[in-house]
Design a protein that fits this description.
homodimer; alpha/beta; Rossmann fold; two-stranded antiparallel sheet; 8 helices; about 35% helix
Chain lengths: ~210, ~210
């Protein structure tokens, strides 16, 4: 079970690490973080560095491709080499997946044209501009083999569903227990529909 | 707002990255990943490497100390240098915090004696063996300045509460919205009390 997670400068760390923490528990999981060149890749917030141990050229196939988002994924939509690599890997996968604005990379690579997908709430228009049909669910599973997750933390929910599809419900429940994923957020502001206007204004003022 | 996250071989990546993804949004946040020596630190699953940019010797104070757990934190309870460093940093902090079995490090350093704390469900007896009073809540906040979170994913909930304490509720809600933390786990197996026996048996058979 080869799991490949591409990294690029400006990725969002939790997009990658949330699902990673589930998927590495799959039977015979072999996780590779890959990038244009092996080495240290800095996240979108600028304080975290993950190591890519393989180059995109080294990775020619995957059972699961998991594409994270982040500010760098917006820039990535014009990175021809990255998009070409995604187009090369996709035909080899059992599951091609994304978290957050990672779906913009799948879309820019032409994989989401005419199909249902999701993304971070702030990137809906951009996703649709590539011809994907935005669907306001946390995890959007296509009958084919593409699964997209909403913003950042939604990757954890997606990974649990993916674990169920691959290893069965008991395994997925075991992984949920292993990471003690019994979420109890102290507020109910995690979706654009539910967040108070003041929280939206706060975020807008940061940018 | 200096936020310091110690790393050690065998840490659990989500313990660190979940809270990181919230706390780096705090006003004037300055996040440092530190380790015994600067360099690449491998997680407990063995496939992920995070970069520590500072050594413990370089870091002499923190506003927030956030100690992750993982298999390495169990070994860390006998690492005198790590425990001494935690004892040196604690008097300088506004908040000393842990996620998952990171609380065993705080406990082994003597910081939890006689006070309420939590940890991963599998480490309750060990936590209590250090004289802490285990409390079955997801986030345990001491009147002093110590906050401990339950297993792995609980660090996200803890970080939102910490953000509220530091920057106010609207800011914390904005951070929740930014990471679209509107959890929808596909199963209800995230706590030991609720997980089916088959999931517990599956985990036990892995070890």
């Amino acid at each position: 079970m080869r799991i490949v997670i591409p990294l690029f400068d400006g990725f969002t760390a939790l997009d990658a690490v949330g699902p990673y923490e589930i998927l590495h528990m799959l039977p015979d999981a072999d996780v590779t973080f890959a990038a244009a060149e092996p080495g240290t890749i800095t996240d979108g917030a600028g304080s975290l560095r993950l190591v890519a141990t393989a180059s995109f050229a080294d990775v020619t196939e995957a059972d699961i491709l998991l594409v994270p988002g982040g500010p760098g994924s917006i820039r990535g939509t014009t990175d021809g080499a990255l998009l070409d690599w995604i187009r090369r890997i996709h035909p080899t996968t059992t599951w091609t997946t994304s978290v957050c604005t990672g779906s913009l990379l799948l879309a820019a690579a032409g994989l989401l044209t005419g199909i249902e997908a999701t993304t971070h709430w702030s990137a809906v228009d951009t996703l649709e501009s590539y011809g994907a049909r935005y669907t306001a669910r946390r995890v959007v599973e296509q009958p084919g083999r593409i699964i997209t997750a909403a913003g950042v933390s939604a990757g954890i929910d997606m990974a649990l569903r993916l674990a169920e599809l691959i290893a069965g419900r008991t395994a997925a429940e075991a992984f949920q227990l292993a990471i003690e994923y019994d979420p109890q957020p102290p507020f109910d502001a995690g979706s654009y529909a539910k967040a108070p206007q003041a929280a939206k204004d706060y975020l807008a003022a940061r940018h």
